[in-house]
Amino acid sequence: PDTVRLLSSSQVITSVLNVVKELMENSLDAGATSLDIKLENYGLDRIEVRDNGHGIKAEDTPVMAVTHYTSKIFSHEDLEQLETYGFRGEALGSICAVAEVAVITKTQDDDISTQYTLNFTGQIVSQKPSHLGQGTTVSVLKLFKNLPVRRQYYSTTKKCKEELKKVQDLLVAYAIIKPELRLTLIHNKVVVWQKAKVADHRSALIATLGASTVANLLPCHHRQEQPEIFLDGFFPKPGADYSSTSSSNPDKTFIFVNNRPVHHKDIMKLLRQHYTAQYPDDSARNRYPTVMLKITVPASSVDVNLTPDKTQVLLHDKEAVLTAVEVFLVSLYGYRSN
Ligand code: ADP
Ligand code: MG
Fold first, then answer.
1. Residue 149 burial by CB count (10 A; 0-12/13-18/19+): exposed, middle or buried?
2. Are 244 and 307 contacting, i.e. CB atoms less than 8 angstroms apart?
3. Which residue in 50, 74, 130, 219 has its CB near the most CB atoms, within 10 A?
4. 137 CB under 6 A from ligand 1?
5. Does ligand 1 lie within 6 Å of residue 26's CB atom?
6. What residue stretch is flagged as signal peptide (predicted)?
7. Interhelix angle for 265-276 vs 318-333, to 10°?
8. Is ipTM over 0.95?
9. Hey, what domains does the chain have and what are their CATH numbers?
């Protein structure tokens, strides 16, 4: 059974990025408005996420890392109106199988915080009083200590740096979609990146991408009924110099589906086609526009369960969404890309 647990957990928890994402999403689900993410040795020695969310009630702590325990959905129908990032109850338990995990938590009703040390199967092996304020801090030490090949794979300087960049990109995506969130990323005790709480998406874009980039972007909205599709976002201004809002990496094209940062090949392709068409010369063929596209569809028409990390989503009415995006782009720029 230990082998089975290790194998299935290692499919859910695949990287430092993945751990950070799961822990952050738990914090956001707990209503946190402030997140401190600390990494040591690129997260391989320590990943710590501290939030100011509602905490975990003492009576819930024994089950928090039990695989498939979740406090977020109670019935099959709840999946149809999912408003939380998590719902499978897999992350914490899976992390326990591939690292050393400790959780410090305090709810509004607790006088002091408690630190819990968890074992391989997610059970509490010890607990002691701690000194933190309201919220939860999860520490993940020695990631993949029992998966030496994977640990080795992530230990090269190149991989480490790539992974840190990916973590930062993920934080930027959440910073944009959640303006009210305060975020810091600390690596080996040095603040690598941070973002203060701001009022709206525009300020969040300025805080993350810089004022000069955002000066070339225009807020856009599109509402459609039947099927219900809402599009909101920031797009390069018509007629603006696109080169200032394009890059050779996809790291400034932000696509969200129901507030989840996602990778969506077809939508990305559509966006790229549209902007690439505006460059007559070949040098610009591989550009990605700086775009924030927030797609909101009924929760029942998206399946986020495609991959364990939920970064790929299945849209029930993909063609309708693509058409809506196309219509939106045409109305903004006044012509078709193909
Ligand atoms: P899921 O997010 O799918 O419910 P997880 O394994 O990620 O599953 O977390 C298990 C449970 O532990 C959550 O349902 C929640 O009740 C609790 N939990 C985990 N992290 C936090 C946190 N940062 N703040 C409050 N509760 C948390
Ligand atoms: Mg979760």
1. exposed
2. no
3. 50
4. no
5. yes
6. none
7. 20
8. yes
9. 2-195 (3.30.565.10), 210-333 (3.30.230.10)
What backbone phi and psi angles, to 5 degrees, belong to 336? -90, 155
First-last CA distance in the chain: 55
Contact status, residue 25 vs residue 189, Cβ threshold 8 Å: no
Q: pTM higher than 0.90 for the full model?
A: yes
Enter the tokens of residue 303. Answer: 């399946």
Pick from 238, 329, 250, 236: nearest CA to 286: 250
Element holding 291 (H helix, E strand): strand 291-296
* Token pair in block for residue 143: 């990631």
Q: How far is the CA of 240 from the centre of ligand 2 (A)?
A: 41
What are 223's two structure tokens? 């509402």
C-alpha span between 239 and 216 (Å, rounded): 10
Q: Is the CB of 24 under 6 A from ligand 1?
A: no
Q: Which residues contact 264 (CB under 8 A, 6 or more apart)?
A: 255, 257, 312, 313, 315
Are 93 and 140 a contacting pair, CB within 8 Å? no
- How many Cα neighbours within 13 Å face the side chain of 298? 11
